[in-house]
Amino acid sequence: MPLIAEKDGSEIRMSAKMSPELELFVVCGWGKCPQRLERVMKKQPNMNWKNEEGMTPLFNAAMCGSADFCKKLIEAGAEPNIVATEYLLTPYEWVSAKLSYEEERDRRLNDFDQVNRLDDTCLAIRPNLKPFREVKQVLEEAGGVSANAFSNSPTIKPDGSIKGGAPSPARAYNISADGSFSTAHYLRSGKFDMLKYEDGRLLECEYNTKTGHWDGFDAAKAKAEA
């Protein structure tokens, strides 16, 4: 699989003037600056603005464990069930996976027997999961669900409908090999270059700017679908 890299580097430059939407996204990733959040929200940004991975400010706030920010964003009109990233996750789905992983890891590594077997040079570190449990509760109360996009019966269907409800362009996604947040998706945006290793060197390679397909795409697609 070839590599992709942004043509102009990171889209977030703290020294540059940001749009209200990008500023809101950045601030929500901090999760601990309510006064700055209030100032940004007074600019009336689009609450459902998406970055290249489809992530919204609400997704960013959920990932940093800020239940207060999540609640304020939802009250301001943020959609809790937008599907994002190459894994096609909702904020609720991401937080649920985070909690499941950390809880299992904590049970496995921090039980009484394991801790007492540590020598004097080791520390047992327990994760603080309270913020993420609070985020999960906020999202549940707002109707947040897991998309289950790759299952045979997804909760959020590709047209954005939830459990037989109305379709939604904001929640819609494409599960195909060159669909939402795939390599082809990024290449079609015109913001990325494609790179490959050849003879120990990293070289730029060609691709179709309209489809995002490259030489060998069909073989990669067949392998992914196998």
3D structure, described in words:
- With 226 residues, this protein is mostly helical.
- The protein has a domain at 18-153: Serine Threonine Protein Phosphatase 5, Tetratricopeptide repeat, CATH 1.25.40.
- It contains nine helices and three strands.
- It has helices at residues 20-30, 34-41, 57-63, 67-75, 91-109, 112-116, 130-141, 183-188, 217-225; strands spanning 3-6, 192-198, 201-204.
- The chain has a three-stranded antiparallel β-sheet.
- The model has no long low-confidence stretch (mean pLDDT 90).
Order of helices and strands: EHHHHHHHHEEH
For the CA atoms, what is the radius of gyration?
20 Å
**Mean residue pLDDT:** 90
Content-based structural category: mainly alpha
Describe the oligomeric state of these chains in a short phrase: single chain
Proportion of residues in β-strands: 5-15%
Largest sheet: 3 strands, antiparallel
In total, how many beta strands? 3
The CATH C-level name of the domain at 18-153 is Mainly Alpha
Whole-Å distance between the termini? 16 Å
InterPro entries: Ankyrin_rpt (IPR002110), Ankyrin_rpt-contain_sf (IPR036770)
Pfam family, one: Ank
ANK repeats: 53-85
Keywords: ANK repeat
